[in-house]
Amino acid sequence: MKAAHWFALIPLVLICSASCADVTLLAPGAPAPVVVTIGEADVVAGPAAELAKYIGAMTGAEPAIVAEADAAADAPRIVLGLAEGMTPESFTLKATGNSVVVTSADGPGLWFGMYTVLEELGCRFYFPGDLGENVPVTDTLTLPEMDRVESPAHTPRDGPCGVAGLHPPQRLVGVRLTARLAEGPLRRLAAQDEDGRREGEHGAQPLRHLPAC
């Protein structure tokens, strides 16, 4: 390709680089991002405290939790806020510039959105308790730009083990564990009816036939 053609591609490369840029919440040596809360204090306080705790465990610097009016305009931030007009337990997650914004119509949705942010930052939650967590240690917090909405197929988020009655963080683990099991042993169990007949005679049985945990 001629040199002139290479130069013609430079603007396209720059546009792609700008549109695909990561959102940096923490750079080495910089102060921790702030956690900004919007909405009823008794609803947003729990997810905000949990988010700050895990970011502190990752970076060694626990973020301050502030109201929207008290946050510096140029400070990197993670916003947790309540918004109307959304289905129960759904959330939006938008990351752009130096901000990550999670909004939901209710507390459970905010919990699920907050934990999704932590997973985007590298945390993993396999089952309740310290042994079921993998929290990386880092001096940098980045995630890709995104703008998405996540809504549950059923509300409340539930499964054969009745996870709807659990506290939201445990429910998050329970729902995802149920989903993983459903791809293996639970799928085989669901193929049996109450008389123990295998799939082929009457087809797969719904998960409601599984024993309660």
Question: Main traits of this protein?
Answer:
single chain; 213 residues; alpha/beta; six-stranded mixed sheet; two-stranded antiparallel sheet; 5 helices; 21% strand; globular; disordered N terminus
The number of helical runs is 5
How far apart are the termini? Answer: 65 Å
Q: Which structural class matches the secondary elements?
A: alpha/beta
Oligomer: single chain
Order of helices and strands: HEEHEEEEHEEEEHH
Q: State the total count of DSSP E strands.
A: 10
Biggest sheet layout: 6 strands, mixed
What overall form do the CA principal axes indicate? globular
Q: Please give the share of residues in helix.
A: 25-40%
The Rg value, from CA coordinates, equals 22 Å
List low-confidence stretches: 1-19, 159-164, 185-190, 197-213
Describe this entry's structure for a reader.
The N and C termini lie far apart (65 Å). With 213 residues, the chain is an alpha/beta fold. Helix 2 runs parallel beside helix 3. It has 5 helices and 10 strands; from the N terminus they run H-E-E-H-E-E-E-E-H-E-E-E-E-H-H. The strands form 3 sheets. It has a 6-stranded mixed beta sheet with strand order 3-2-4-6-5-10, covered by helices on one side. Strand 2, helix 2 and strand 3 form a beta-alpha-beta unit. The longest helix is centred in the first third of the chain and has 19 residues, at 41-59.
Q: Summed up, what is this model?
A:
By secondary structure, the protein is an alpha/beta fold.
